[in-house]
Amino acid sequence: MPMNLILLGPPGAGKGTQAKKLVKRYSIPQISTGDILRSAVKDQSPMGIKAKGFMDSGALVPDEVVVGIVDERLDKSDCVNGFVLDGFPRTVAQANALKAMLAAKGRTLDHVVSISVDKDELLERITGRRTCKACGKGYHVLFDPPRLADKCGECGGELFQRDDDREDTMVKRLDVYDEQTAPLIAYYESESLLRSLPGTGSIDDIFQRIVSIVEGK
Ligand code: AP5
Q1: In the chain, N or C: fewer CB atoms in 10 Å?
Q2: Per-residue burial over 125-153, b = 16 or more CB atoms within 10 Å of its CB, e = otherwise
Q3: pLDDT tens digits, residue range 96-125?
Q4: What architecture does CATH give domain 3-29+76-118+171-214?
């Protein structure tokens, strides 16, 4: 049975970390608009050049850009058994666009999992985050450290810190979340799709909370 999920939460809530675990367990793809945009920035594609300024300042990339990305991505064959949307939608306009595009594709959402973490912990998580350049695996210097400093434990790739993970940009990203994305909690509550959980505790404990939700236990 297809599993069509959204992970909702502020920057640093653990959406990417949990999405990767869902990918392994359910063999469905993670669709991270942030990852797709960062890859476009790296390739200096026209979309990447347009997105870079917004991302570096902690602002959202315009809705029409990300809606187009997701619309195309959902048509790929690996989405046939479902998907985990990570970082999309982020505005009410994006949520409305998603609803329309899923209806046009004859699909529906199963769950919107909202992960909450308080601001001090979000700041600590983001400023300590490191990501593998080669395979994308995420680490945290204190909470989930790599075995070898600056090297990925899975593939040996080099670890890097994201450009938008500086403290000043992070504060702006949290404000943007409060203003533009947090209203989606009420939006999906009114659609009877919202399932909320605390995003604190171990990564595995949080994953078990998500599994209980999506498997209806
Ligand atoms: P995006 O890449 O989506 O970033 P984000 O939403 O800000 O989320 P993050 O990736 O920062 O956090 P996360 O929740 O995935 O946390 P993670 O699992 O890494 O967006 C970046 C930018 O792209 C945006 O600012 C915007 O400009 C643009 N963009 C993207 N999508 C867009 C859209 N739809 N519309 C418009 N613009 C868009 O965890 C964080 C750290 O904490 C890691 O180090 C991890 O190891 C650690 N950690 C995780 N879980 C735990 C735990 N339980 N305990 C301790 N540490 C933990």
Answers
A1: N
A2: bbebbbbbeeebbbbbeeebebeeeeebe
A3: 999 999 999 999 999 999 999 999 999 999
A4: 3-Layer(aba) Sandwich (3.40)
